[in-house]
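Morning!

As promised:
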Amino acid sequence: MGSRLAKQQKEEINKLVTKLSLSDEDRDYTVDTFRKFCRFNMKTMSRDDFKDFLAMMNMTSYNELLISAVFQVLDTNADGELSASEFIKYFILLIRFPVATKVQIVFDIIDRDSSGCIELAEIRRYYHDLATSRAYLVGARDSRQLTDRDIDKLFSQIDSDSNKKVDAKEFEQHARTSGPELLQLLDAYIED
Ligand SMILES: [Ca+2]
Ligand SMILES: [Ca+2]
């Protein structure tokens, strides 16, 4: 690994650790898991690496379509690879971790351009990518295709001050009052 890249990756991880207030143990555990699955180039995770990771997590219901959809949703800088922080966010969603942290993570993932707000196009994209591919593997109960109108309605529910942007506060409020549906699209593990 080139030292410049190593440095860049370290900074990215440190930023995430600070933002999510991860303990040293959490940091080491998640970074170690990331490194373990970076088989091809040792610094980013390819789709194949990611597939191996899902198998390790026993996520056997994931078909190729859903694997691609989740990978694309997580690859927020769209470079075709998962960086350490892109991967770690998802890993945290799957393991035992405070729900508040998971809400923060999903907000960040949906806010793809890191503007600090979720715009309508971002939530449409998130829903389309995940709900559409999911329809192929779940039963009829959940396979209803969401229309743009449904998503727009959801957006205005979350956007409580109606300024056409969802900020972190509105998003948290929605998750608290309406349940973790948006988190579950990424299979976030929620304790009872
Ligand atoms: Ca990426
Ligand atoms: Ca945004």
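Strands lie at 117-118, 166-167.

Hope this helps with the figure draft.
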